[in-house]
Write a structure and sequence with these properties.
The protein is of the alpha/beta class. It folds into two domains: about 210 residues, Alpha-beta prism (UDP-n-acetylglucosamine1-carboxyvinyl-transferase, Chain); about 220 residues, Enolpyruvate transferase domain (UDP-n-acetylglucosamine1-carboxyvinyl-transferase, Chain). Helices cover about 30% and strands about 25% of the residues. The chain contains twelve helices and 24 strands. It has a five-stranded mixed beta sheet. Strands 4-5-3-14 form a four-stranded mixed beta sheet, covered by helices on one side. The chain has a four-stranded mixed beta sheet with strand order 6-7-9-8. Strand 6, helix 3 and strand 7 form a beta-alpha-beta unit.
Length: about 450
Amino acid sequence: MDHLDLAPILQAGGTVALPGSKSISNRVLLLSALSQGVTDIGQLLDADDTRVMLAALQSLGVRLEALPAAHAWRVTGAGGVFPVHRADLFLGNAGTAFRSLTAVLALSPGQYRLSGVPRMHERPIGDLVDALRLLGATIHYEAQDAYPPLALEGWRASGQALATRVRGNVSSQFLTALLMAMPLVAVQRAASIEVIGELISKPYIEITLNLMRRFGVVVERDGWSRFTVAPGQHYRSPGSIEVEGDASSASYFLALGALAGGPVTVTGVGQGSIQGDVRFVDALMAMGAHVNMAEHSITVRGVHAARGERLRAIDADFNHIPDAAMTVAVLALFADGVSTLRNIGSWRVKETDRIAAMATELSKLGAGVEAGADYLRITPPARVQAATIDTYDDHRVAMCFSLAACAGVGVRINDPACVAKTFPDYFQVLSSLVRADL
């Protein structure tokens, strides 16, 4: 369908079993494929981004088997070298797949071409390519310099030092990609990465380091400025691994509990989560919602926005949770004053320019919005207006703006199918939590 009309949400409550984390799913798939041994993966996300990674790995000759249990896969590792040495890979708009495969394939024998949808060809990758070239990789831009599509030629060991550097303030996915690829070349010598400037989205690097340890590779780090992989380490299968629920997706349902009374509980993430976006609960508590965290679940209850009740305004740095911060921007519609989201410049190189997109759509709902290079300042309206929301082929825009219906007004979401990127049945799950009676 080309649009979805959401009825006013007056009250909501219930429990959601979250789909698997996209960030963890694609990292685990690639690490399993590079490992020695067989890995059984449980609760793998079933969505466009993981399907892209599965298709790419299959094209590279990795043996993949869907297991009888739901969302379970068996990956037979290639031991560090993919069987197929020549491939043309289409990676859609999956940044986690495109960036990590660029690094791994650029530091592998073989010739590969990587491309994606038009928006992927607008997302800069020059910093990652420059870092890989310092390691001896041969990479050609097929169209515009610093942007995909890319042609990669086989990497050959040379006498040059295995040391590189990358800017930290564009995308943490560049550093993640380099980290996961480094053990492939650190055979007889250590390999190191220097981070230039501030490193954004540090919790995503924590996920990468945590999972690399699970697969037998320990990365030494000097704060957040230098990372070193000692020689002779190889990825080894842990045998089996369970993917956590997606903490970014959890934010929509936790916000629902904060806006529509609740309680709403999400399962699959909690105090034991390795994902930084679980800290979205800090923003909820700062805005006045009641949060209860257990080891593997989170419960939230809050105001009834449809009755005109308000959350507290917030002014905070969201560099550490850029995806979940989009949900905070919509919560700001329901605050008792002006909210400011700071240090969110990475939004501009995501699936769309998210700062521009959020400013435009919040304005449609009646908010006053000031958009800067790396911040949004949101003045809530006296009453949220019914609106038609454009989604820019961005799953997170579609999901976070569904919460505007908690104002007791109808909301039309254009291109609702874009949520298939990470959460294909999002709107059905949302509907299951909504109650019409106050």
